[in-house]
Amino acid sequence: MSRLIPFLKTGLRNTGFLFGAIIVLVILVMALLSFVWTPHDVTNLDIGNKLKRPGLEFWFGTDHFGRDVFSMIMTGARNSIAVACVSVIIGMGIGVPLGAMAAARGGWLDDFIMRTNDFIFAFPAILSAIMITALLGPGAINAIIAIGIFNIPVFARVTRGAALSLWTREYIMAAQVAGKTISRITVEHILPNIINLLIVQGTIQFSLGILAEAGLSYVGLGTQPPMPSWGRMLNEAQTMMAFAPHLAIVPGLAIILSVLGLNLLGDGLRDLLDPRLRRAR
């Protein structure tokens, strides 16, 4: 707590961090609120109110089935955040140990891990999702698996690169002379000193996860009906742009603001957590 208060005070003076945190907080609150309340039932089809313009009753209008767009945005935020969050956890949970192991052991193990990561990295999340859904069928779970697999080499590369620069430091050599094992040095000295970098990378992958989930849902491989998804809302709106542009504008803005907010938050965290950048400022 004693460190948190100065950190927050510094963060309030960082414009990018502040705007990013506000945007992300609003989206999180909206997603959490959707568990207990939405203005209208997102599964309720009301053909009599289809394609309503934004107004007092329907804040962002309705779609071609008469569903409230704002309620769908709220529920879609929940789904996008869930997919992105779990996929980042998968990528970090597997990629960080692999990268740390590659940096610590070196030799053939390092080559094997990094060449395997290069092979995985060659397949974009969308292509991985196509292969997975060809075997298991479309759905949010398979989208999580595809995006999570794509995140593994990202975190492995970042962890390995940061860890390699630390293994040559004097305090690491002193720990080795003291008889500490490689595993213990990694846990006690390496990972605590690169956690800031991993947090920043996590926010970046989180924003890319939201973008990837929207892309997968757009082509029908992500969240399936009747649950709303920002990407599928865009797909359904493309044939109605001429007479109902709000159906594309609203989910498009939701995706843009989410990615922008997380990127601003990530850049702000990088500035706040990197001592060299703090001194420069």
Describe this structure in words.
There is one protein chain. This protein is mostly helical. It has one domain (4-280): MetI-like fold, CATH 1.10.3720.10. Helix content is 73%, strand content 0%. The chain has 11 helices and no strands. Helix 8 packs antiparallel against helix 10 and helix 9 (230-237) packs antiparallel against helix 10. The longest helix has 37 residues, at 69-105. The chain is elongated and about 75 Å long. The mean pLDDT is 87.
Percent of residues in helices comes to over 70%
Taken from the alpha-carbon principal axes, the silhouette is elongated
Tell me the name of the CATH class: Mainly Alpha
What is the CATH topology classification name? MetI-like fold
Sequence-ordered SSE layout with sheet pairings:
Blueprint: H1 4-12, H2 15-33, H3 69-105, H4 107-121, H5 125-136, H6 140-166, H7 170-177, H8 182-218, H9 230-237, H10 246-273, H11 275-280
Which key phrases capture this entry?
73% helix, single chain, 11 helices, 0% strand, 281 residues, MetI-like fold, mainly alpha
